Amino acid sequence: MTMVQQLCCNRLVNMPIQRPKPLVEQVSLELRQRIHDRTYPPGSRLPSESELAQELGVSRTTVRTVLAKFAAEGLILRKQGDGTYVNERIRDIDNRYGGMWDFSRLIEANGYRPSIRTVTIERRPATGDESNVLAIGLNEEVVSLVRLFHADGRAVIFATNVFPATLLKIDGEKLDGNLPIHRILQTYCQEQIAYAISDIEAALVDETLSGILAREAGQPLLRLKERFYNKLNKPLVMGVSYYDHTVLKLRLVQAWG
Q: Where do the domains of the chain lie, and which CATH numbers do they carry?
């Protein structure tokens, strides 16, 4: 077993058995984690492709493929004749490592201590809109997860996620609402998010949200509508989140050229 396979396996010890991931995906997960936990801090120079390939026990082509993807995301910068560096501004970017919709990480990035309160976890029939988005039958059973995210004890994000109950591979009654949505899918559904489509809209605080987010009715806030898909373009989860932009700042990065 290569080093990268061993590292990834160690992280999955407490998770249900999953099909082996392609090497490119394993290397991507490992290097992303190193950037996230500051093994490779912002502004630091990465080991060369050959050094990484030797350390992880994979080909240079595999490493090159992963680094090309990171460069396209703006996660790393390539300097001609000088090597590859972690983007020094990565500390200021909220969507690193898919973190834009990892609300706990987003709260931390704004300098607050995150906490989550699970409001409800229930199975119920899908609505018409949910059936359309998730490509399931009308009234087919879904799992609805409603949560409230806090920043230093202040409620800042009210989030609802819905996914087909048929995705569950283990008992959904034991679902841990403190996990980010991608970890919930990995742990309980053995599914991996490949991409998300998000609509960011302006909305007004209604009477219900006023009591939840401690904002006056009629004030503006952000509404995020999200759809998450796997690599086969299968819809996994849909969500609607209300986001107090007066407390949390959202900064995005897009690679150019």
A: 3-91 (1.10.10.10), 96-243 (3.40.1410.10)
